Structure formats: structure tokens, C-alpha cells
């Protein structure tokens, strides 16, 4: 398999990362996951824009233009003959003698590699269970940071409880999932946490909000509570790899009829139509 290392394609065996890479020591870096459908990068521009925004927020300069970066991602997918899968890309501040403050003269380190991945079609059909977990993360969740301890501890706790995802909440307020955004539907209106510093503004979230506009589903970007979540008619989560994923049970309590709801289904269909369109163009 080919890996992208800065602007070079190399074999995995050739990859050499310093013991003092700041991503490794401090989680001092950012990442993106871009979905590949039929050899095409889905919503690539949006992911690339967010990658550059995250880099700017942590004051790392990406040494390529967005166009060059896009081409590198595309070549990586092609060279590895990925039809359906994803590209993982991360950028760290680089390697330097361990110190907390930024080194003045070190080059950022970029790594990207793809993997094959099927769509989770069965789970999208049946829906999944989720668990409420206190959101103990920092206050810059808008940055797609490599620091994911808060996220992985929550995901692990959910998994150990037999759940697919953790629904994070700060006090009573639901923010997002450990690796997804969260949505509730009540009386035909879709509610989701506003894109503030408390959540990652998912690319899938943006696609979904656009689809709601197309379908005439009213959207309220308003935070809702745990109690309100349990009283929603329908509930679902979204991410690059899970698309529109129905949540049919939270903390053992059934949501609505305990099966994926009607509007959730409509959004799944619209999402599918949208990705087919994108793939063809
Ligand atoms: N929130 C968090 C914390 C995430 O890790 C992710 C997935 N990367 C998302 C939301 C969903 O974002 P996207 O739709 O861009 O995958």
C-alpha cells in the first residue's frame, strides 16, 4: 500500500516517524476522514476546507495549496485502487526536542493513507442503541484535534454497555456523539446542537441540513436536553462513515416506536440519492 508522507508517496515500510513527533507526544495535530464512494472522494472540498481551518486554529501552516492537497488525496486513492473506503489524513506540528511551547523552526508532518470500507447498510436498516455519557472534553470541540481521549473513553464506555455510540451531554444539554453529530425530530422539526465550540461541525451534518431544506423539513439548530432527547419522535446520528444512522434506543429506553422513523428514512434516501449524484458527476 502507498502512504502519503508530506508530498511523497512511499511504502509503509519506509515510513519513519520521530519519537519526538509532537503528534505522538502531545496530540499536537489535527486530522480528517474523507469517504470514498466508487473511487470518488465524497464532499472532498468541505473536508479539505475544514482541515485547513483546524490547522489555522492550532497555528500550523499546511505547506500546500488546497488544490495540490486535493490532488494528493485523489492520487492516493487511485494508487491504492480504493473503490469504497476512506482516507485518513493527519498533520502534526512536527518533531522537536520535547517542550510544550511551539518550536520555532520545525516542519509539520503530514501522513495520509486509505483503507477499504463498506457502508454499514444493515445497521442503517435496523438502527442502533446509544448511551448517555457526560461530555468531559475541552471547550474547543470545533477543532478536529488528534487529542481524542475524551471521545475514546466515552465510546469505550458505550461499547462496554452494548451500545454503538455515546451521546455526550454537558450537564443536561446534549452536545454530539463521541464520533458523530446527534439529531432529534419532534413534530416534524429537526433539532441539533448549533455549530459552536462545543461540537465538531460535521460535514455529514452540513449535507443533512441542506437535504432538510430540499425536503422541506424545518431545522432548528438549538441545543436540547437529555429529557427532551428521550421524548423525541425520532433520533439519529451522522458521520462520514455512518451516514444517517437511526438511534432506536437510548439508555435502554425506546425512542418513538423503537424503529427508524419516517423522516429519518427520508433523509437516508435523500442522502443516498445525493451521493449517487455526486459519484456520477
Ligand atoms: N463529531 C465528532 C466528535 C466526530 O469525531 C465526528 C466524526 N469525525 C463528527 C462529529 C462527524 O463529522 P463528519 O460528519 O465530518 O464525519
UniProtKB/TrEMBL annotation:
Catalytic function, reaction form: D-alanine + 2-oxoglutarate = D-glutamate + pyruvate
Protein EC: 2.6.1.21
Gene Ontology, cellular component aspect: cytosol
Entry keyword set: Aminotransferase, Pyridoxal phosphate, Transferase
Keyword flag Transferase: yes
Subunit composition and interactions: Homodimer.
Role this protein plays: Acts on the D-isomers of alanine, leucine, aspartate, glutamate, aminobutyrate, norvaline and asparagine. The enzyme transfers an amino group from a substrate D-amino acid to the pyridoxal phosphate cofactor to form pyridoxamine and an alpha-keto acid in the first half-reaction.
Family, similarity comment: Belongs to the class-IV pyridoxal-phosphate-dependent aminotransferase family.
Entry protein name: D-alanine aminotransferase
High-level lineage: Bacteria, Bacillati, Bacillota, Bacilli, Bacillales
Gene giving rise to this polypeptide: dat
